[in-house]
């Protein structure tokens, strides 16, 4: 018999979180959360850390409407985990205010002066580069889940006891 | 003392024996035999070759690669321990464990020679069981092409000019039978003139749907020392990985059950059922083995910081990912 396999995904409005069956020890050791649940729970573009290793992070947020503009001294990456998200990029005229030693992205007060570089429209499973020292912002017509490969910074929020199995 | 080693006739099967220090490795049609000064340890040949393939592909990996609950390697990054029972409470408590240390390149060369001689035509130790022939029977050719695949490692992000290529029909990676329904569209990149090489995106799910190996992470993007290592998983992780640092998993599709045992004693601790979107951390004092009923997409998230090596050496590496 030939089988038609169905790949099972989830989304911000439809996820089926797993869990832990403990034999011994503490369930908190596994720091178990779900990126869709986290994205659904917090304000648009509020990045919540779901994984951390030294200063490095994986962060999840809800994309909805237009985000502020951000920049960062190093590369970051964003993956759309369910619905469409646009990423817009600006090559800033002045990047001298970016401190090379400062990790993590930070918010800009306004849309920065510079050259518009273009946009990438991400759908489920698409990953985009957020290049170092480039300004970027997001736009989503309806709530979508955005996951970042990043470094702990001003925009990173740690809410472990709210998001993890205990 | 009676010699309790199983009689293996290489004349009949055509395989070679190999030695590493005081270990000798032999195979027959069904089994691998690991002879060491205190005895002999037997493993099914398919399990042995699949584990050996991962240990080679991962350069002995982070920490302990348990081929099963008795035999394996411990990476000390430059040198490596080959052991029987050192990660098994009963062996240790009864003084039956045995271990020998090797320079990594020396053991790697021997491991590669074993894998090459013992892997026969039609058996692919990287493949899911339904996608390959069997490892059984007498020596019959080799499958050096399959076992010499190296994992794809991005410099910055795959698909960027000069970086590792994205998998496609053109590059010889067809969509896996379990992922025929995975959308193959690319992100729409609308770059202004002059910025074509600076803004970049690709379809990670489609890239993964074309992976021709199981349980073998590749690297798609690098943020300083943060390595995004997605992989596709089907059937059983051929090793119990005893990680020496925390290791994070992000399940992207379908589901995987992780059996967690104590790193030292091998006593059961927990099982994790991870579904799409679930994130979990493997503590640094456990061993884990995954079971994936359908081919699934998993991001293994690693940290290559030299700082972690220092912490491992001086015993200060955190046991858990986050304390809260
Ligand atoms: Fe692992």
From TrEMBL, chain A:
Provide any one GO MF term from the record: dioxygenase activity
Taxonomically, the superkingdom here is Bacteria
Record's keyword annotation contains Oxidoreductase: yes
UniProt entry keywords in alphabetical sequence: Dioxygenase, Oxidoreductase
This chain's protein is named: Hydroxyquinol 1,2-dioxygenase
Origin organism is SAR86 cluster bacterium
From TrEMBL, chain B:
Keyword list (alphabetical) reads: Dioxygenase, Oxidoreductase
One Gene Ontology MF term: dioxygenase activity
Domain Hydroquinone 1,2-dioxygenase large subunit N-terminal stretches = 11-151
Pfam families according to UniProt:
PnpCD_PnpD_N
The record's annotation in InterPro entries points to: PnpCD_PnpD_N, RmlC_Cupin_sf
Q: Can you say what this protein is called? A: Hydroxyquinol 1,2-dioxygenase
């Amino acid at each position: 018999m030939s089988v038609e396999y169905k790949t099972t995904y989830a989304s911000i409005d439809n996820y089926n979180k797993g869990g832990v069956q403990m034999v011994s020890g503490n369930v908190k050791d596994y720091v178990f959360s779900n990126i869709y649940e986290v994205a659904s729970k917090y304000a648009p573009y509020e990045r919540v850390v779901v994984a951390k290793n030294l200063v490095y992070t994986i962060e999840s947020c809800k994309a909805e409407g237009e985000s502020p503009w951000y920049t960062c001294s190093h590369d970051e990456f964003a993956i759309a985990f369910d619905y469409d998200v646009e990423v817009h990029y600006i090559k800033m005229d002045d990047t001298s205010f970016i401190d090379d030693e400062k990790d993590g992205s930070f918010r800009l007060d306004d849309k920065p002066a510079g050259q518009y570089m273009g946009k990438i429209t991400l759908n489920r499973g698409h990953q985009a580069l957020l290049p170092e020292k480039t300004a970027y912002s997001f736009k989503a017509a309806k709530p979508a889940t955005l996951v970042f490969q990043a470094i702990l910074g001003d925009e990173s929020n740690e809410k472990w006891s709210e998001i993890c199995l205990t | 003392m009676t010699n309790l080693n199983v009689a293996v006739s290489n004349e009949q099967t055509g395989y070679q024996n190999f030695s590493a220090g005081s270990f000798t490795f032999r195979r027959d049609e069904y089994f691998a035999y690991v002879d060491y000064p205190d005895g002999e340890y037997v493993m099914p040949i398919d399990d042995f070759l699949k584990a050996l393939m991962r240990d080679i592909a991962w350069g002995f990996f982070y920490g302990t690669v348990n081929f099963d609950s008795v035999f394996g390697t411990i990476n000390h990054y430059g040198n490596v321990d080959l052991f029987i029972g050192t990660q098994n409470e009963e062996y240790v408590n009864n003084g039956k464990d045995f271990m020998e240390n090797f320079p990594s390149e020396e053991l790697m060369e021997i491991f590669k020679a074993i894998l090459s001689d013992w892997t026969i035509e039609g058996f692919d130790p990287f493949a899911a069981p339904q996608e390959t022939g069997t490892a059984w029977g007498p020596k019959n050719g080799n499958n050096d092409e399959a076992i010499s695949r190296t994992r794809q490692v991005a410099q910055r992000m795959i698909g960027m000019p000069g970086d590792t290529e994205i998998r496609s029909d053109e590059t010889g990676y067809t969509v896996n039978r379990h992922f025929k329904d995975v959308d193959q569209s690319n992100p729409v990149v609308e770059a202004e003139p002059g910025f074509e090489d600076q803004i970049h995106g690709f379809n990670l799910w489609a890239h993964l749907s074309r992976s021709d190996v199981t349980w073998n992470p590749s690297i798609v993007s690098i943020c300083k020392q943060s390595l995004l290592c997605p992989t596709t998983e089907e059937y059983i992780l051929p090793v119990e990985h005893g990680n020496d640092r925390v290791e994070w998993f992000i399940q992207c599709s379908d589901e995987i059950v992780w059996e967690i045992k104590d790193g030292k004693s091998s006593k059961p601790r927990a099982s994790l059922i991870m579904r799409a979107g679930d994130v979990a951390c493997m503590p640094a004092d456990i061993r884990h083995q995954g079971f994936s009923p359908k081919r699934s997409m998993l991001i293994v998230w690693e940290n290559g910081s030299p700082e972690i090596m220092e912490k491992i050496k001086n015993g200060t590496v955190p046991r858990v990912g986050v304390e809260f």
